[in-house]
Design a protein that fits this description.
Blueprint (H helix, E strand, L loop, with lengths): L3 H17 L12 E8 L2 E6 L3 E6 L13 E7 L2 E7 H4 L9 E5 L6 E4 L1 E8 L4 E3 L11 E7 L2 E6 L1 H14 L15
Parallel strand pairs: 2-11, 5-7
Antiparallel strand pairs: 1-2, 1-8, 3-6, 4-5, 6-7, 9-10, 10-11
């Protein structure tokens, strides 16, 4: 039986998320940045709400055979089957228990698995600054840092992760599949 507190918390997050699109900033004030704080492994991150299409908790994922790093399998969303990739793989970490899936706003839609949703942030644009992480490793996918009451939080560039996943899938050749350049009949 689901935990009633969790259901209540998720309902509140959904109401806040939906309501954020209806509110307009006061005249003369800049529109705030809308972010979602999450955990990937033991690390806390933020993602821009505009970069994601949806959030899903404990969606069944069907594993697929093959050796594509970070591919957890596929999941069904309404009338679509979507590839599910482990976000921790792209950030250089290890997922603990990726219970959550976020659908990317980019096409083709993919799902990124992560561990937990912490909450929604609405911050002034001045609270978000370019990241000082190095370009290698996870820094490649961290474009900014948001400054919160709990300290600085790296912002994941979901579009950059999406582009890397799509590129990796396009380059992937399963073992024994050849290069695709062999003459027919051989």
């Amino acid at each position: 039986m689901p935990d009633l507190e969790l259901i209540e918390h998720l309902s509140e997050l959904r109401r806040e998320f939906d309501g954020s699109f209806a509110r307009r900033p006061a005249p003369g004030r800049e529109a705030p940045d809308e972010l979602l704080t999450i955990t990937v492994g033991a690390e806390r991150y933020a993602v821009r709400l505009g970069a994601i299409f949806g959030l899903f908790l404990d969606r069944p994922v069907t594993a697929l055979p093959g050796g594509l790093p970070g591919l957890l399998g596929v999941a069904g969303f309404r009338s679509s089957i979507v590839a599910v990739h482990d976000l921790a793989t792209w950030l250089g970490g290890t997922a603990q228990q990726p219970h959550w899936l976020m659908l990317t706003a980019n096409r083709p839609v993919i799902a990124l698995a992560f561990d937990a949703v912490l909450g929604r942030l609405q911050v002034p644009r001045s609270a978000v600054a370019p990241s000082r992480l190095l370009a290698g490793g996870r820094g490649r996918y961290i474009s900014e840092t948001v400054h919160t009451g709990a300290g600085p939080c790296p912002v994941i560039d979901i579009a950059a992760v999406h582009a890397s996943v799509v590129h990796q899938v396009g380059q992937f050749r399963p073992a024994g599949s050849g290069t695709g350049t062999e003459p027919a009949g051989e």
